[in-house]
Amino acid sequence: MRHFVAVFSVFLLQASAAASAQVFEGAWFRISYPDGFVASGSLPSTTNDGFDSAFFRDPVGRIEFYVYSPQAGGTATDIAPDAARETLVATEGSRSADRTFRWTTYATNDGTHFRSIEEMRTTDRLQVRVFAIRYRSTDDLAAFRKDYMDFKQSFQAFAD
């Protein structure tokens, strides 16, 4: 539970977005990520050239960021839970007038990594955006907290 609380507080922190030298452009979004990280598109878009999701990994492998933002609806299947390798640590949700939010944290069964996922969906389910972070320890999470907040705040969705 302490990992979920630590990650949940990451989502609530307010930080100003800093300019990053690297920009990834997906099929329906643009996002900045830290220098030195390696970006890789994941789920190809079915409605446009490019990708609906991407991973961004630091060169040492301590941290990996993720974003999913398709044109309309969808499921981030490339980060689906793996019950054979992961255990649900915590989950929480909230709802506003037009959006639902879900925060979920998983731990690998061997204890080597944690994964925290933040999903936003409009109530009509036409818009979805998912951010995730994979980390080895709460120390790694703390070390990359500002980079992760800057990453999320740099997100820009494209319209049709």
Keywords:
10 strands, single chain, Protein Transport Mog1p, Chain A, seven-stranded antiparallel β-sheet, globular, 16% helix, 160 residues, alpha+beta
The oligomerization state is single chain
CATH architecture classification: 3-Layer(aba) Sandwich
Taking all Cα atoms into account, the compactness measure Rg is: 15 Å
Global structural class: alpha+beta
Shape field: globular
Topology, element by element:
Blueprint: H1 2-12, E1 22-25, E2 29-33, E3 38-41, E4 53-57, E5 63-68, E6 86-95, E7 99-108, E8 114-122, E9 128-135, H2 138-143, H3 145-153, E10 156-157
Antiparallel strand pairs: 1-2, 2-10, 3-4, 4-5, 5-9, 6-7, 7-8, 8-9
Q: Can you walk me through this structure?
A:
The model is unreliable at 4-20 (pLDDT under 50). By secondary structure, the chain is an alpha+beta fold. The chain has one domain (2-157): Protein Transport Mog1p, Chain A (3-Layer(aba) Sandwich), CATH 3.40.1000. It contains 3 helices and 10 strands; from the N terminus they run αβββββββββααβ. A hairpin with a 5-residue loop joins strand 7 (99-108) and strand 8 (114-122). The radius of gyration is 15 Å and the shape is globular. It has helices at 2-12, 138-143, 145-153; strands at residues 22-25, 29-33, 38-41, 53-57, 63-68, 86-95, 99-108, 114-122, 128-135, 156-157. It has a 7-stranded antiparallel beta sheet with strand order 3-4-5-9-8-7-6. It has a 3-stranded antiparallel beta sheet with strand order 1-2-10. It starts with a helix and ends with a strand.
